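Researcher: We're teaching a course module on how sequence relates to structure. For the next exercise, students receive a sequence and then see the predicted structure as tokens, so they can try to spot secondary structure elements on their own. Here is the exercise chain.
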Amino acid sequence: MNEARRADGIVRVGWGRLGLVALVMVTAGACAHPLRDLGPLPPRFSGPPLPADAVVADLTSAMAEQGLELKRQPPVMQPIECHEVLTAEPPTATADASLKAAFARARSGHGWQAGPDMGPEMLSIRKNDWTATASLTGTRPSELPTTQVVISLLCYGAHSKPVPSTPPSAPSAQAPTGS
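Model: And here is the predicted structure for the students to work with:
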């Protein structure tokens, strides 16, 4: 009788393990389809990548319509991929209002969209693979007539950087053939 209990116990344990294995296999089979590799993620932008020069020109134009004259700053470190810095020096008293109006103008008249929310002291807009951000100067009093505004442009990939030109190949000198 003792052996029958052991045999019965072994059978129960065996069925329990078989049930657990079946459950794991069904779960793995159901989850395998959603976990398969679908390739790279799609880009976070729509449309063709924009070259840096085109983005700078477009944003400079939008800002100029609101009275902000932007200057493109030379890169500080080389190589910087997909990064541009634009500066302006509006009157201190109206710097934030001018900057907000210029960003709104870029959205309404130049195809820029609202960018990621970076808090109440930051402005952000995006167009295709580029994001422009600027920090508001705040309401602190200043004795200076103008203040510096910095707009940083960043892109999502290295495809927007200028492509170095290749030097033209030297013409090959062919020896005259005697006929």
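Model: If you want an answer key for the exercise: The longest strand covers residues 149-155. The chain is about 35% helix and 15% strand.
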